[in-house]
Amino acid sequence: MKKLVEEAVTETLRGGDAEMVRLYVAACTERMAPLFVGLRVGAPGREDDVDFYAESVRDLWHADRPLSDGAERVRVLERFPELQPTDDEVVTDVVGINTFFAALVLRYALLANGSGSVDDAVSCGHAALTAMGMLDQNVFGAGFLAQEHGLQALSVSGDAAGLWEASIGAGRERFRTVLGRTAGSLG
Predict the structure, then answer these.
(1) How big is the chain by its Cα radius of gyration, in Å?
(2) DSSP code string of 112-162
(3) What is the CB neighbour count within 10 angstroms for residue 81?
(4) What are the structural domains of the chain?
(5) pLDDT tens digits along 143-157
(6) pLDDT for residue 23
(7) Is 138 or 54 the better-scoring residue by pLDDT?
(8) Average pLDDT score, the chain
(9) CA 146 to CA 101: how far, in whole Å?
């Protein structure tokens, strides 16, 4: 499958170091975090999952070193319902789709954080871009895919000033948009 991550971003990651990879995946995950945390907060039995997600995103920003417990975090995350395959159920609801992609982005981010793997980082970025492309298809004139491309390029630009703030803002904007699409269905 062709990756949606721009070739220039991929090549910059390949020419960079593990810290660049960790910063890139931390930023991707930060932008997707509201779609998991915001949509699962208050869901019965999901309190620990929400806390785990939020703590993992926070810890990923320590890009100067890999997480000491990254492999264990991947194992915990893979037990989330969003990442459990089912043969009889296809996820088609707005909440399910968005929380799936947010969990998938975190999974690849944790893998890339521990290994420094550019391939895992590109998979992380690809999952975020796929989610934003789907959101664009469902919200007229949204522009989230283009925004994600731009923020991914910023993540590898060598100038991380403002990256965290831009990622927080983008994540909030995405959450507000998705929340507007779920009005009446979260009840």
Answers:
(1) 15
(2) HHHH--HHHHHHHHHHHHHHHHHHHHHSTT--HHHHHHHHHHHHTSS--TT
(3) 16
(4) 7-181 (1.20.1590.10)
(5) 999 999 999 999 999
(6) 97
(7) 54
(8) 93
(9) 17
Amino acid at 56: S
Scanning the chain, the segments in alpha helix (DSSP H) are 7-15, 18-40, 47-60, 70-77, 94-115, 118-138, 144-155, 163-182
Q: Which amino acid is at 164?
A: W
pTM: 0.93
Mean local confidence (pLDDT), 148-171: 94
Q: Which residue has the tokens 């993540």?
A: 155
Half-sphere exposure of 23 (CA within 13 A, CB side): 23
Mean pLDDT, range 135-141, rounded to an integer: 91
Give CA torsion, residues 81, 86, 88, 89, to 10 deg: 40
In this model, does residue 168 exceed pLDDT 60?
A: yes
Please give the Cα distance from 111 to 22 (Å, whole number): 10
Can you give the pLDDT at residue 88? 66
Q: What is the largest CA-CA distance in the chain?
A: 48
Note every long-range contact of 71-74, with CB atoms under 8 Å and residues 24 or more positions apart, other chains counting: 71/114, 73/110, 74/107, 74/110, 74/111, 74/114
